[in-house]
Backbone:
């Protein structure tokens, strides 16, 4: 069971999402609604999280390897392309429609709302669909 | 300032969780990637464990603190389906979401993640503006 920290960190992450109010779509949509009654909470959540990650990331990555694994597994792609931006825009539209990004959607599953289950099921279909689209376009390019 | 105590504390907790995962297993806490990886693999074990913890951690906070459960949006359920589809497609196409790009990516000063975060923030703001102020909301 070398993977046990995943359970603990998932638990902490979910607790952070719930405590911060990010599992409340009204607060998330209120943050994105800069022309209405703006709710600044999400800025404080991002700020709190970034203070930790900006400070700790260089210290952690300065070590030769992680405590319980052979190597750090970081994204290697550094190109800024259309996929990155278009994907971000499509995600942002979905985020702005319902107020869930993937983390809060998953953490909210325990709240037992049927619409949350529908959102997550559709999200999985969307992920699968994008993989299919990539297959089709790569075949066309060949 | 007191009313922002829980957003700040929750944000710090999210940051600590991400950094603990990086320090122990050497992995990035990007939820969209973890969700898809838990289904499609490879290395499904740690991802499934993380997701079990994520779901449990959310409800644990409400049980322990008595914080009321948030209400779901009052928009029609079809919007949840459309939004979910877009979130799923977009996060996989753009290789990440609020956690992977926004918290971890910017945290390690990745230009790619900063561009992605700007793109989805801006798209989210425009979407809410169109829905609430041009269309008058879903209700």
Residues:
């Amino acid at each position: 069971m070398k993977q046990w920290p995943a359970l603990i960190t998932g638990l902490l992450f979910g607790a952070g999402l719930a405590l911060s109010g990010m599992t409340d779509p009204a607060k998330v949509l209120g943050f994105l609604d800069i022309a209405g009654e703006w709710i600044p909470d999400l800025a404080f959540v991002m700020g709190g999280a970034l203070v930790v990650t900006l400070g700790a990331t260089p210290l952690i990555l300065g070590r030769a390897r992680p405590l319980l694994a052979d190597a750090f597994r970081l994204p290697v792609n550094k190109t800024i392309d259309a996929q990155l931006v278009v994907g971000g825009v499509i995600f942002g539209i979905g985020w702005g429609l319902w107020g869930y990004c993937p983390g809060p959607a998953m953490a909210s599953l325990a709240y037992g709302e049927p619409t949350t289950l529908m959102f997550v099921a559709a999200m999985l279909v969307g992920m699968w669909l994008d993989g299919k689209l990539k297959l089709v376009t790569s075949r066309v390019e060949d | 300032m007191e009313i922002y105590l829980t957003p700040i504390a929750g944000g710090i907790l999210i940051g600590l969780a991400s950094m603990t995962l990086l320090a122990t297993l050497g992995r990035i806490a990007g939820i969209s990637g973890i969700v898809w990886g838990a289904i499609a693999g490879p290395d499904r074990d740690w991802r499934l464990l993380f997701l079990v913890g994520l779901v449990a951690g959310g409800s644990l906070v409400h049980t322990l603190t008595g914080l009321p459960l948030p209400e779901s949006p009052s928009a029609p359920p079809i919007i949840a389906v459309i939004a979910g589809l877009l979130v799923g497609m977009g996060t996989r196409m753009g290789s990440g979401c609020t956690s992977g790009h926004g918290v971890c990516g910017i945290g390690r000063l990745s230009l790619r993640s900063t561009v992605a975060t700007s793109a989805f923030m801006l798209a989210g703001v425009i979407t809410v503006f169109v829905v609430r102020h041009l269309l008058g909301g879903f209700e």
About this structure: Chain B has a mean pLDDT of 95. The radius of gyration of chain B is 17 Å. Chain B touches chain A through 107 residues (CB under 8 Å). The helical segments of chain B are 5-25, 31-40, 44-65, 77-93, 98-107, 111-134.
